[in-house]
From TrEMBL:
SUPFAM superfamilies: Aminoacid dehydrogenase-like, N-terminal domain, NAD(P)-binding Rossmann-fold domains. Belongs to the tetrahydrofolate dehydrogenase/cyclohydrolase family. GO terms for biological process: L-histidine biosynthetic process; methionine biosynthetic process; purine nucleotide biosynthetic process; tetrahydrofolate interconversion. Residues 14-129 form the Tetrahydrofolate dehydrogenase/cyclohydrolase catalytic domain. Residues 148-293 form the Tetrahydrofolate dehydrogenase/cyclohydrolase NAD(P)-binding domain. This is Bifunctional protein FolD. InterPro entries: Aminoacid_DH-like_N_sf, NAD(P)-bd_dom_sf, THF_DH/CycHdrlase, THF_DH/CycHdrlase_cat_dom, THF_DH/CycHdrlase_CS, THF_DH/CycHdrlase_NAD-bd_dom. It comes from Sphingomonas gei. Its EC number is 1.5.1.5, 3.5.4.9. GO terms for molecular function: methenyltetrahydrofolate cyclohydrolase activity; methylenetetrahydrofolate dehydrogenase (NADP+) activity.
Length: 294
């Protein structure tokens, strides 16, 4: 395709909601098969400490999503001043409960709690968030395990537009343990050539401009501008920031200036891109855990 043709093109909008719905349908069918086989539905324990408004919304959506596909959820909402030991005691109880196949602790946790200690206390076989060091190690060595939900969702979105990632230049913007680093591992597994960058990276725009795949996960609204993006690149926007508008209302904004990247081959919107995949992949991971621990 010539440059002139690309200029008149509109990027494909990758519909995360539709792809998540399709994954949920497959998950629901697998759950029905598990119930027929074992007589018991997969169980997911959802733990929320404190009253962070966004976390409350996400946890509510996870519980609703469980109901939709047939996962039995148990909800554990604890006050913000919960002692770390009390949380660890709850996790030990959930680890030992045979009706619970998956455990997730919503993050961020309050500042007085050592998140590493808490996430590391979850049985790796029930760690449906894939945050436990055992699962992190398995991902980085390509030896299976449970994979974090947002990175898994990002890969499914890429698969919806590309057959093969072999040899493609991928740039990940963001180095968090739960998004940036695992995405880099998953891209490497698929033979992409991966550059991990972050907000302090020098010459970030020039690095991104060379990429066939751009995964923006820096949590910096509209960081990635149109002129950063190569013609025909695939752009996945993981950032979700609520910003205040001039009229006093708030709206969700991604890390990518969506309106400026229409010369890309495909781009995810915010909202409606990666976010819905996070919850769909959590449900899929719960089924995977139930199948592995029957
Ligand atoms: N234990 C975990 N904690 C957190 C995770 C996680 O995977 N495990 N990820 C994020 C929050 N998160 C799920 O927990 C999450 C974020 C966003 C969405 C989503 O559907 N976003 C929508 C818009 C939401 C809105 O309207 O406010 C979208 O992008 O379309 C789902 C889940 C941090 N914590």
């Amino acid at each position: 395709m010539t440059l002139a043709e690309w200029r008149t093109k509109t990027a494909e909008r990758i519909d995360g909601r539709a792809i998540a719905r399709a994954l949920d349908a497959r998950t629901a069918a697998e759950i029905a098969a598990i119930v027929r086989r074992d007589g018991i539905a997969p169980g997911l324990a959802v733990v929320l400490v404190g009253e962070d408004p966004a976390s409350q919304v996400y946890v509510g959506r996870k519980i609703d999503a469980c109901r939709r596909v047939g996962i039995v959820s148990s909800e554990h909402r604890l006050p913000a001043d919960t002692a770390q030991d009390a949380l660890l005691t709850l996790i030990a109880r959930l680890n030992a409960d045979p009706r619970i196949h998956g455990i997730l602790v919503q993050v961020p946790l309050p500042a007085h709690i050592d998140a590493g200690a808490v996430l590391g206390a979850i049985d790796p076989a029930k760690d449906v968030d894939g945050f436990h060091p055992v699962n992190v190690g398995r991902l980085s060595t390509g030896t299976g395990g449970l994979v974090p939900c947002t990175p898994l969702g990002v890969m499914l979105l890429l698969d919806s537009v590309l057959d093969d990632l072999t040899g493609l230049d991928a740039v990940v913007i963001g180095k968090s343990n739960i998004v940036g680093k695992p995405i880099a591992m998953l891209l490497l597994e698929r033979e992409a050539t991966v550059t991990v960058t972050h907000i302090e990276t020098r010459g970030l725009a020039d690095i991104v401009r060379k990429a066939d795949l751009v995964i923006a996960a820096a949590g910096a609204p509209r960081l990635v501008r149109g002129f950063w993006i190569k013609q025909g690149a695939v752009v996945i926007d993981v950032g979700i920031t609520r910003v205040l508008q001039d009229d006093g209302r708030t709206k969700l904004v991604g890390d990518v200036a969506f309106d400026e990247v229409q010369h890309a081959r495909a781009v995810t919107p915010v909202p409606g891109g990666v976010g819905p995949m996070t919850i769909a992949c959590l449900l899929a991971n719960t089924v995977k855990a139930a199948n592995q621990n029957k």
